[in-house]
Amino acid sequence: MTTMVTVHRVNAQGLYRNADGTLEHSVQRSQQAIMSYELSHLRELEAESIHIMREVAAEFENPALMFSGGKDSIVMLRLAEKAFAPAKIPFPMLHVDTGHNFKEVIDFRDKRSADLGIKLIVASVQDAVDKGLAQDETGPRASRNRLQIPTLLNAIEEHRFDALFGGARRDEEKARAKERVYSFRDDFGQWDPKAQRPELWNLYNGRIKQGEHIRVFPISNWTELDIWQYIADDKVEIPAIYFAHQRMVFERDGMLLADNEFIERMEGEEPYEEQVRYRTVGDMTITGAVESDADTVEKIIEEVAATRQTERGATRADDRSSEAAMEDRKKEGYF
Amino acid sequence: MSEILRFATAGSVDDGKSTLIGRLLYDSKSIFEDQIESVTKASEKRGMEMDLSLVTDGLRAEREQGITIDVAYRYFATPKRKFIIADTPGHIQYTRNMVTGASTADVALILIDARNGVIEQSRRHSFIASLLRIPHMVVCVNKMDLVDYSQEAFEKVKEEFREFAMRLDVPDLTFIPVSALNGDNVVDKSENMPWYEGRSLLTHLENVHTASDRNMVDVRFPVQYVIRPMTDEHHDYRGYAGSVAGGVMKPGDEVVVLPSGFESTIKAIDTLDGPVDEAFAPMAVTVRLNDEIDVSRGDMICRPNNQPIVTQDVDAMVCWMDERATLLPRKKYAIKHSTRTARVMVKDLHYRLDINTLHRDEAATELSLNEIGRISFRSTVPLFLDEYRRNRETGSFVLIDEDSNATVAAGMILGETPS
Question: In DSSP terms, which residues pair with B9 in a beta bridge?
Answer without folding.
Answer: B87, B109
